[in-house]
Write the structure tokens for this entry.
Amino acid sequence: MSFELETATVASENLRRVAIDPVSRVEGHGKVTILLDEHNRVHQVRLHIVEFRGFERFIQGRPYWEVPVMVQRLCGICPVSHHLAASKALDLIVGATKVTPTADKMRRLMHYGQILQSHALHFFHLSSPDLLFGFDSEVGRRNIVGVAEKYPEIAKKGILLRKYGQEVIRLTAGKRVHGTGAVPGGVNRSLTADERKDLLKDVYQMIAWSREAVQIIKELHQQNPALYDHFGTFRSNFMGMVAPDGSLDLYHGVLRARDADGRILFDQVDYQTYDRLITEEVKPWSYMKFPYFTSMGPENGWYKVGPLARVQNCDSIPTPFAEHERRELVAYAGGKPLHATLAYHWTRMIEMLFAAETIKELLQDDDLSGTELMTSGERRREGVGVIEAPRGTLFHHYQVGDDDLVTMANLIVSTTNNNQAMNTAVREVAKKYLDGREITEGLLNHIEVAIRAYDPCLSCATHALGKMPLEVALVDAEGTELDRKYKQ
Amino acid sequence: MTAPVLVFGWGNPSRGDDALGPLFVEAVEAMALPGVECLTDFQLQVEHALDLKGRERVLFVDASATAPAPYSIDRIEPARDESFTTHAVSPPAILQVYREIEGEPPPPCWLMAIRGAAWELGTPLAAGARQNLMAALDGFRHWLHRPL
């Protein structure tokens, strides 16, 4: 099926093509193409993504115990999320239907360290340049270096928040990168009392800075509601994991979805059955699939995931400061779900605060220094692991043969879950800001601002020097290049 | 105590020649040189500006699709650039961030770019890239003893 502006209804040879390739400041390689007529009216907008090509194949045939380490190489930004989702799936292979309290809390600590560092990176270094300087401000200044010059304290706090989250990861995963902390059936280490004390020493500062970050984005919303409430706004379903009691839990729980008005569509769903719930539609113009709730069909069943979905999907947040902020958000929205694309930033900062508070609570728990690290049970051949990664719900599904080798791997990553939502966001922005106007860099950046709000993690593009240009090409109906801008 | 020399390499070890940075660091680490600290990561990130503090000299090492083979090594200075993505933060931009947040010039820094050619997931280092790596390690020994 096709959505408004997904496919032009007039002959494409009569249209002009604008490509933003790759989208800057998102993880990996993205491309936006826009078809315009001679009056610059928008006829088609598509966000294309080079997805995790070959990942499943990369995993198949490997011994299952290697997988939690291997999958970290799928993504340079959120390796911990893949590490934990794979470990949770493979717990079931070794019969560990419930890991020990020490293993559960070590993994949770690792995960909330990852949420903290990833959200800090996104807000302070990806999005704050747009938010603090304006979407069409001077392009050379619209970056973290510009932020560091104009707002050095904000930039430094962002860096230190990220550094702290990575220190949590280092101590729980065993290494700064390529950690091995989680293994099928549990963990391979716990924290010493001194390690906990060291982390506790700084966590209060992290909570304070996270609270400040929520205030920054909340004030931006309040100062300019016309922009923040309406930029790229569209209605959709949303999905995420919640604890069985309905509170926010980013590590483990059950699946819940709501419709655009906030009514529950399904709840308390065991994620082992995700493949009965979700269908992935293939479209010829994109490498990335388009998931939707099977029972509702592709037209009505697509959804958002990630912070905006999670903070509004849960009934409460189990830490005090973050819960206070959630209630303020709910009050701001007037009791109805907030669908504003830029509210992703607000909810992301509420989650960062939740992560900082959760880290503090976990560090005070003596189970983190326990010695029962592993458990096992009856061997199985199949397991699904789900985690709420920084960008949204992440599914890992494996089948393992009697020879311990992986025979099937299926991943639905957060960005894939948000595929239709991101496409809809860029179409809304194109309609409102580009339609009928001369295209400028500032206007094109509006498209990128909408994409960045979702924090898409396309990743695993090679990060070698010289491999991440931004290219915008104007091509006429005959395919002749009229203009090109290139940013190294 | 902070080691006076930092060698920082980055890249994805599972993506063919993108492993050049981490492999270079691994080889330097194996030399067990006094006063030399080795760090590696998937990619250069803003917080790595904090790793520059207290150093006498720093060598950044990455794979490159465009550097002259077998490698290039250049002194780098703080600079704002427009390539700012979380994937491709440039070393000069890291130096600029250091200057802004620390309020002082960064230590002397060099960028070693080792030429690679193939970047597919799951592929090993190509033979040509391995030769370039060996040449770069020779170059490192000269760099280490080069006067500031």
Remarks:
- Residues 459-474, 484-488 of chain A have pLDDT under 50 and may be disordered.
- The longest strand of chain A covers residues 392-400.
- Chain A touches chain B through 55 residues (CB under 8 Å).
